[in-house]
Amino acid sequence: MGKATREAYGEKLAELVLENERIVVLDADLAGSTKTACAKKVCPNRFFDMGIAEADMIGHAAGLAASGFVPFASSFSMFCVGRVWEQIRNSVAYPKLNVKVVGTHSGITVGEDGVSHQAIEDIALARVIPGFEVYVPCDAAQTKAVIEYVSKTNMPCYVRLGRSGVDDVYSEDHVFDFTKVHTVRKGKGVAVFACGLMVQSCLKAAEILAEDGIDLTVVDVCAIKPCDEAGIVEVLKSHDMIFTAEEHNVFGGLGGLISEIACEAHPCKIHKIGMKDCYAESAAANLLLEAYGLDGAGIAKEIKENL
């Protein structure tokens, strides 16, 4: 098991804050959990703990961005997107201010903290805001690359990270191109688009399906918005059956994105795997993934049933 994407975020942010004096870090009383404490340790004069006041944090981040800084504002995904959606819309996205909103503890794998902390709507909420970019990295290497990438852009964005440790998909020296989707496993006939830790679940599902002669293509969609529409259409056209997998409600997230593109460019049947418009319980992350069919075995089962 590799490290959690939130840990990789903290490590990379600590590097960047020393390299770029314009980067400032804001947190909402969760620096130990979001790992922004790593940046605080090396550069305390550019770290601001805003307390349990996420709307205030986004407002300050907007002001800092308007003053020429590059603020990274972090909390749990439920709080830094869900609780402060209006502030992001009106204070960040509308004036096109260069604020990086980074949410950790997304999806149901926040586990024992329960439904109040399990963000399964955040991709949809962020994706619908005009001019607001959305990234969902799957492992440590991709997370560090995303954080470095957005630190150099002049666009407001949301980066969605997780609480739990995840297997490494990419090597540390992998060269990422966030304008493209990436096929991490080339199969034939059946393809699944995935983001975040569902990339790992789909790779495990592919191993299970291979035993039954099903050769699954697994496509990693880290950049939800802007996305590689041409690359997605190419996968749609070259496969007979399409699935999507996300640790998110099946409405409005990755599945919605792929369906929208297919509707206009290549109409086809798409089956969405994710939270079926329901909430989870408070339990260990692995138990919740199994219970809602989002582990490798569950995804393999759902793909077989719907072929």
Q: What does this 3D model show about the protein?
A:
By secondary structure, this protein is α/β, with parallel strands linked by helices. Helices cover 40% and strands 20% of the residues. It is built from 13 helices and twelve strands. The chain has helices at residues 5-19, 31-34, 37-42, 54-66, 77-82, 85-93, 122-127, 140-151, 198-210, 229-238, 254-265, 285-291, 296-306; strands at residues 23-27, 47-49, 70-76, 100-104, 133-135, 157-160, 182-185, 189-194, 216-220, 223-225, 239-249, 270-275. Strands 2-1-3-4-6-5-10 form a seven-stranded mixed beta sheet, sandwiched between helices. The chain has a five-stranded mixed beta sheet with strand order 7-9-8-11-12, with helices on both faces. Helix 1 packs parallel to helix 8 (140-151). The longest helix has 15 residues, at 5-19. The radius of gyration is 18 Å and the shape is globular.
Largest sheet: 7 strands, mixed
What is the gyration radius calculated from CA atoms?
18 Å
Q: What's the helix-strand series?
A: HEHHEHEHHEHEHEEEHEEHEHEHH
With strands numbered from the N-terminus, the spatial order across the biggest sheet is 2-1-3-4-6-5-10
Question: What would you call the quaternary organization?
Answer: single chain
The amount of beta strand, in percent, is 15-25%
Secondary-structure-based class equals alpha/beta
Mean pLDDT: 97
Categorize the overall geometry.
Answer: globular
Distance N terminus to C terminus?
31 Å
Q: Please count the helical segments.
A: 13
Report the strand count: 12
Helix fraction?
Answer: 40-55%
Low-confidence stretches: none
